[in-house]
Amino acid sequence: MELTQIRYFTALARVLNFTRAAEACNVTQPALTRAIQKLEDELGGPLFHRERNLTQLTELGRVMLPLLEQAQAAAQAARDQAVAFRKRDSSPVRLGLDASLAPALLTPVVTELSHTVSALDLSIQQDETVGLAVRLLEGEADAALLIDDGRIPERVHRWPLFSEDHVVLCPPDHALAKLDAVPISVLGGPKLLMRDTDGCALRVALGRMCAAAGVTPRVRLAASTGEQIAEMVKAGLGITLAGARQPVPPPLVARPLRATDGDRRVVLASPAGRTHGPTLALFIRLMRARSWSEIPAAA
Amino acid sequence: MGLNDELRKLAESRWGEGRMRQIYDALAAHLERTEAAKHALKVGDTLPEFVLPNAEGRLVSSRELLAQGPLVVAFFRGDWCPFCNLTLAALEDALPRIETTNARLVAMTPDANGLALRAKHRNSVHYDVLCDIDNGVAMQFGVVYRVPDEYRKFLEDYKCDLGTRHGNDMWTLPMPSAFVIDRQGVIRYAFVNGDILVRAEPDEIIAELKKL
């Protein structure tokens, strides 16, 4: 697969006319035709229907177009980033983080960026996944770590990072702390403290898990931040729900839930089709490259 | 015994005459027929500048590497490929001799999600393994091909989902290849072959480095 062939293909797919595509690419028409034929040979079939006055993408051509555009963009991005890196160009990065995720998740990548990008201009806003997705689409945020529970619009591109189970957080002297795993029926108990913000991913998951188990959750919307909830749990006011791989505020303990539908998919999200500034592009690369198995699992 | 002898021996022990051999032969024939290796960078071409995360999550740039000496770039598919693992281990064996020429060695894989680190641990490798996200750098080296449908089906049967491993749905792979680049960033040796059992011998790479 050669970049020139891909460039000719995307040009022809755009204008659907061999003569005009050759002009746009600044090559002769036979050269363009040969390159397209080579690509068709590699990809295993015609990419265009060639009729006398009409050139149209075939089904294979339609399938290949976004993939080859992606390959072309990847090569271009690799080139642009290297140049920006050499010139020490930087661009602002506005990140979002679902409120149920620990900011520590971003620390290794942000640390690396702070070492390599001069005058790093980075901001992090913590909010609910749904609100952050809107912010991404409206151009108010560049990338975000979200919980992919079916509420992220299609136009937001997602790279899966890791999945985690749900745990119950309780004080160390709580009856549940003695159990290896907590039955889902506990969530129907009277002392489940949750954040009161709209669209809280943990409450969505709670609803799903309880519905699957036929349990009616009894939730007390007690505070607006996870830290406040943790303080209330420490004070013995109740228990709460968290992601299994998020840090447990000491001295609280985490116990896994015996639930069947507790899978929390953590994704890196960014609006599809938007050009990334050099620093954001580096951030996304670093996030996608790294191992997420190093996050300590809750005990 | 050279790397290529070991690769053939491994293939014989694993493949026999069964489906696996047919699949790999078909892939090699496809890449040969479509002249996939023809577009690769050649001796005399300039190294495409790059900055990529390494397995440990640090950014590594070609400029910083070249500032330290000549550079060897080896593309591999991923730690799902036993022949790539053998190659990574052979390069590790050759590392002390490569380093005596003041050269740096980096291997690149399109595998994301920490799989570069796993490849490194699995093969006890001490050189940098870089994560070439979406094959962006490999594309510029001209060593990328789209996985043919039959080979894709074979990989999927073996639970090797390149979509998940790479974090994209392109299903592209680099041809296992090796390049020696001098301090000025000029390619002085290029080895690209569509046959996964035919790879640059570490001795050959070292001989090229000694000429610089």
Q: What's a concise summary of this model?
A:
Chain A has 299 residues and is α/β, with parallel strands linked by helices. Chain A contains nine helices and 13 strands.
What tags apply to this protein structure?
heterodimer, A: 299 residues, alpha/beta, Arc Repressor Mutant, subunit A, D-Maltodextrin-Binding Protein, domain 2, 3 domains, 5-stranded mixed beta sheet, 4-stranded mixed beta sheet, 13 strands, elongated, B: 212 residues, Glutaredoxin, two-stranded antiparallel ribbon, 9 strands, 18% strand
Largest sheet of chain A: 5 strands, mixed
Low-confidence stretches of chain B: none
Stated plainly, the CATH topology of the largest domain in chain A is called: D-Maltodextrin-Binding Protein, domain 2
Shape of chain B: globular
Q: What's the β-strand tally of chain B?
A: 9
Relevant CATH superfamily of chain B: Glutaredoxin
Spatial sequence of strands, sheet with the most strands of chain B: 5-4-3-8-9
Helix content of chain B: 40-55%
Describe this structure in words.
The complex is a heterodimer of chains A (299) and B (212). With 299 residues, chain A is an alpha/beta fold. In chain A, 39% of the residues lie in helices and 23% in strands. Chain A contains nine helices and 13 strands. In chain A, helix 1 crosses helix 2 and helix 1 crosses helix 4 (59-86). Chain A starts with a helix and ends in a 10-residue tail after the last helix. Chain B is of the alpha/beta class. Chain B has a single domain, classed as Glutaredoxin. Chain B has a five-stranded mixed β-sheet with strand order 5-4-3-8-9. Chain B has a two-stranded antiparallel sheet with strand order 1-2. In chain B, 48% of the residues are buried.
